[in-house]
Amino acid sequence: MKKPLMLVFLLLMLFGCGKDLDFDQEKMEAAVREEAMTFNKVKEGGYKAEDIEIVSICKAERNTSKDVPQHYFVHWQTKDGKVKDENTLMKEYEQDGADDFYTKTNECVEY
Questions:
Q1: Distance set, CA 78 to CA 21, 57, 72, 106 (Å)
Q2: Residue 37 falls within a domain, yes or no?
Q3: More exposed terminus of the chain, fewer Cβ within 10 Å: N or C?
Q4: What are 28-46's pLDDT values in tens digits?
Q5: Contact 32, 52 (CB under 8 A)
Q6: Is residue 92 part of a domain?
Q7: pLDDT per position in the chain (111 positions), as tens?
């Protein structure tokens, strides 16, 4: 009985922890919340930074050969789910509006 339970636990740990995408998680979360607070619907809704939940952060792959820092697509939403953005593009902890140059990969950290 212990071996199957241990196997299930190990599988959950392997697949449930997400991939290491080589960014400072706390810094990225703070930057995303700061960016979310600039959205009109967030401001008008009276939301605070702590009302912003990050759903996932996925590595972005550049569609051209230009050498640039790593970018990430972030999916965030308010705790009540009324305001969300599934494709905020972040570069070095700042928003980058050039999302048409990137493709979202399957390398993600799910929250």
A1: 24, 16, 19, 23
A2: yes
A3: N
A4: 999 999 999 999 999 999 9
A5: yes
A6: yes
A7: 444 434 334 333 434 444 578 889 999 999 999 999 999 999 999 999 999 999 999 999 988 888 888 889 999 999 999 999 988 888 888 888 777 788 999 999 999
Beta bridge partners of 108: 58
Q: Structural domain tally of the chain?
A: 1
Number of residues that this document lists for the chain:
111
Residue 72 placed within a domain: yes
Report the b/e string of 45-80 with b at 16+ CB within 10 A: eebeeebbbbebbbbbeeeeeeeeeebbbbbbbbee
Say how many CA atoms lie within 13 Å of 58 toward its Cβ.
Answer: 18
**pTM, to two decimals:** 0.74
Which residues lie closer than 8 Å to 77 by C-beta, 6 or more apart? Answer: 52, 53, 55, 83, 84, 85
- Residue 94's beta-bridge partner residues? 91
Question: What range does the domain containing 28 cover?
Answer: 21-110
